[in-house]
Amino acid sequence: MAPIDDAVAEVELLQPGEHFLYRAVARKFNISNSTLTRRHRGRQKPQHAQEASRQKLNPQQEEELVQYINNLTKRALPPTRAMIQNFASHIALEPYNVQPEHMYNIDKKGFMIGILGGSKRVFSRQLWEEKRVTATLQDGS
């Protein structure tokens, strides 16, 4: 266990009403007094708990996203960030809430089909090192 967890455990083992100083316990475990105080009083969660609460995808959904990226890359179409974001929001059951004021129409004049700007693609490092993905790809027209 981490020193902070050991210190919190020691404080929690004390009898109710038993006098102690956070500073003394913190010094014993060589940790910050304020961190120990916040953690023991429940104002601060352990770092792994904070990280887990910020994740939008669970491990199974993350694996599904990786498979999606790998499958598209094998078909010579490494996904863009937008493609990944759309797929991730779909599997996380968080569809975009597009408001009418954010929609627009476009006609065909001046719209070049199949010409991409410098779009970034996502693929595995292993495929890059094996030179199976070597250059920017463009969609056909």
Description:
The model has no long low-confidence stretch (mean pLDDT 79). The termini are far apart. It is built from seven helices and no strands. Helices cover 48% and strands 0% of the residues. The protein has helices spanning 3-13, 22-29, 33-40, 47-54, 59-74, 81-91, 125-129. The chain has two domains: 3-54, no CATH class; 59-129, no CATH class. By secondary structure, it is mostly helical. The radius of gyration is 25 Å and the shape is elongated. Helix 1 (3-13) runs antiparallel to helix 2 (22-29), helix 2 (22-29) crosses helix 3 and helix 5 packs antiparallel against helix 6 (81-91).
Short recap of the structure:
This is HTH CENPB-type domain-containing protein. The chain is mostly helical. Helices cover 48% and strands 0% of the residues.
Keywords:
HTH_CenpB_DNA-bd_dom, 7 helices, DNA-binding, mainly alpha, HTH CENPB-type domain-containing protein, DNA binding, 141 residues
The low-confidence runs, each spanning 5 or more residues with pLDDT under 50, are none
Fraction in beta strands: under 5%
Q: What gap, in angstroms, lies between the N and C termini? A: 58 Å
Radius of gyration: 25 Å
Pfam families: HTH_Tnp_Tc5
Keywords: DNA-binding
GO molecular function, one term: DNA binding
Protein name: HTH CENPB-type domain-containing protein
Helices and strands in order, then pairings?
Elements: H1 3-13, H2 22-29, H3 33-40, H4 47-54, H5 59-74, H6 81-91, H7 125-129
Keywords: DNA-binding
GO molecular function, one term: DNA binding
Region (Disordered): 36-61
